[in-house]
Write a structure and sequence with these properties.
The protein is α/β, with parallel strands linked by helices. 25% of the residues lie in helices and 22% in strands. The protein has four helices and eight strands, in the order ααβαββββαβββ.
Length: 170
């Protein structure tokens, strides 16, 4: 009996291997628009594709079309200080001060984790915390913001983490 090898790991495309739906940039923008319209607060849309396809640019275009602020977090440039600086408060307690770029209460828009699989582990952890809880330390993401991510595939062509292999990513 001949074995069927049409769906083995060796023959699967990157999206098939990682169970990533294939959609056009227009469809991805439509899904993001629905997330904004219905106030999606948990999870996000992550655009995965080769460099130069317009993933990041499409998010900025969508922000412009909707008159919404886009705040980019470039995880590849996110050093230890970028994930928060301990500051002393009353009674010898500490709190974590996040970068000033984070959305302020009352603002609306898109928090964009750009090329998030190129960042160090603490930046990736921050992304997941924002997805799951809408918060980081004592910071709470304003109600009017959604989280969107972009990343290049983890193939030989890119120096990225293989975060999409983690169950939490899916």
């Amino acid at each position: 009996m001949a074995s069927d090898t049409s769906n083995t790991k060796e023959t699967q495309s990157y999206p098939e291997l990682h169970d990533i739906p294939r959609v056009s940039i227009q469809e991805a923008k439509r899904q993001i628009l629905l997330s904004i319209k219905y106030g999606q607060r948990r999870g996000c849309i992550v655009l995965v594709g080769d460099a130069g396809l317009g993933k990041t640019q499409s998010i900025y275009q969508l922000g412009k079309e909707l008159n919404k602020k886009v705040i980019p977090i470039h995880t590849a440039h996110f050093g230890l200080m970028g994930s928060g600086v301990p500051t002393k408060v009353e009674n010898g307690q500490f709190r974590i001060a996040l970068p000033n770029i984070f959305p302020k209460e009352g603002e609306e828009g898109i928090l964009l984790f750009d090329e998030w699989n190129r960042g160090p582990k603490h930046a990736l952890d921050m992304f997941f915390t924002m997805l799951e809880d809408g918060r980081q330390f004592d910071y709470v993401l304003p109600e009017g913001f959604i989280v969107v991510g972009t990343m290049n595939p983890s193939t030989a062509a890119y120096h990225v983490t293989q975060i999409e292999n983690e169950a939490a990513m899916r």
